[in-house]
Amino acid sequence: MIDFSACVEMMFLEEERPLDDRVRAAADSGFRAVEIWEWWDKDLPRLTRALDSTDTRLIALCVESWRDKCDLGDPSSHDEFLTRVRAAADAARQLNTPGLVVLAGDVVPGVDPTTQLRNAAEVLTRAGEATSRHGLELLVEVVNRAYEGPNALISDSRSALSLLRAVNLPNVRFLYDRYHAVLNGEPLGAEIQDAMPLIGHVQAADVPGRHELGTGTIDWAAELAWLHKAGYDGYVGIEATPLGDSSQVYAAARALL
Fold this sequence. Notes:
Domain Xylose isomerase-like TIM barrel: 23-241
Helix content: 25-40%
Distance between the termini: 10 Å
Strand content: 15-25%
Strand order of the largest sheet: 1-2-3-4-5-6-7-8
Mean pLDDT: 97
Order of helices and strands: EHEHEHEHEHEHEHEH
Pfam family, one: AP_endonuc_2
Shape: globular
Structural class: alpha/beta
Low-confidence stretches: none
Keywords: Isomerase
InterPro entries: HyI-like, Sugar_Epim/Isomerase, Xyl_isomerase-like_sf, Xyl_isomerase-like_TIM-brl
Number of helices: 8
Protein name: TIM barrel protein
Radius of gyration: 17 Å
């Protein structure tokens, strides 16, 4: 059954709450799972206490910042990328977090794209093998071309899934962010309809504006019904800046199921 997780980097910021209080506020509103971006600037023991005291699970964190990401098409970046993966895996184990979010980086000018994709597949394979022994998943994300990823090596769901099939490891899967997919012009179900076993996580925000579900133009009842019918039964991470109070986001999302 689909449920929802809260990105507490964007939600529950009212009253300038610190991170641990955001976790508590998310739990009080109904969320049983949360997500973060950067882990390296967080007080991890304090975060762990908030998670444990509320019986909330942190289901995903990022390996690196999208502002300072490795270009996986460039072999000279691979050692640094693997170092970052190992560090994130250590943090994930401390926090009991199953998912490590990664990007493939940007296109390297002057290098054949096929070669770059092969390089990316090779290092993702190494990273996947290294993290599988700890029961962790790498979640490869595609961002939108208009804002965050105009030069991204993998620029849509089709290219991401092709890369993941080349890697061919059960713990290297696709983070399907529906907000980014909509901005990239992908209709409901496009590209992923025959790839559900490769979907490791789903994220969402409404368009325009990247606000909570129901504030924009997307028919979220239809979107969620399609995901359920297609066999997805995990969390949909709400990675959005609420127009209203964060405490109302979970109930409003559940009403769409």
